[in-house]
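Quick start: read one record
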Amino acid sequence: MNVAQPVGLQIAKVAMTLGAAPLTQQAMALDVIAPAPVLMNWQNITVPVAFVTPFAAQESRNERLLALLQHLLAQPGSPQQNETVYLLLPEYAGTDNNELNTLLQMIMRRFPQLLQSADCRVFPYGSAGVLMALAAAASQLQQGTQTAVWLLAADSLASAAMLSHYAASDSCNGVLSEGAMALCLTAGVGGSRLVFSASDASPAATMADDPAMAALFMQVANQVAQPLQQLYLPDSGDDDASARWLGQYHHLHGAVTEATGFVFPSYSIGELGTCGGLYRLWHLMQAQQKGRLGGLTLQCELSARLYRAVAVLSPATALSDNKEV
């Protein structure tokens, strides 16, 4: 992707409802003070969870997502009527998915103000959709066709299937969580610059054999002229999920050094699915905006099954001699 003379992307507003911290100010402090998870008994196994409301087996995923959006939109700093919203949702299989269509109908009935703008878009690609939406928002803001774009994510791991997976697996050591989050981006002279972004949608052979993930990492290594200073990676304690990027990490050879740091925000917030991708983006951008992160930072995101995406960001005020990409 070519980002010619990219504008600075600034965080104008943020609102969060996360399982471990249902209010924005609490959520913003999670990487400093993370509360202990609730220990839930599932199939005679203790599973650590952080849910906004108690788990209800009869509740559908769509109902859970609507409840999370209700919590979020009741907070200050949330999207208002006729604003441009890019809605980031869990991965839904197929081009005409009935569950997704039903969810969108429910959202338009319950929150008619949310998707009224003709420029609103839906990204049902899991956490990988966060970086796809970031690239689309950066393009719109750079062209001046929008003055602000909201990235709004909602996802929940409060399901019988996920609880059973964590209960039965020796490789899952993280905390199942859920959340909704809204991030308003505007253009300006400060903040972050999107230097490079790319995504892919193709099935992987195995968790450790993912040619598409390898190709994305090789693109990053070929396109950045400076070493990456930090890597933001989707790791929250599930070894199987981590293997998808870890098995391809060596393809970043040349773009990483011994000084490259690893950042894993999800160890503080639990596994949030799609919402975790937006939390990592906020964590990265606000650190650059406040001058705590310098140089180039890579964010990598993977959906549950099909999608993967990468983005490289730098502080907008920093001089960069990256290759054109």
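Confidence is low (pLDDT under 50) at residues 319-325.
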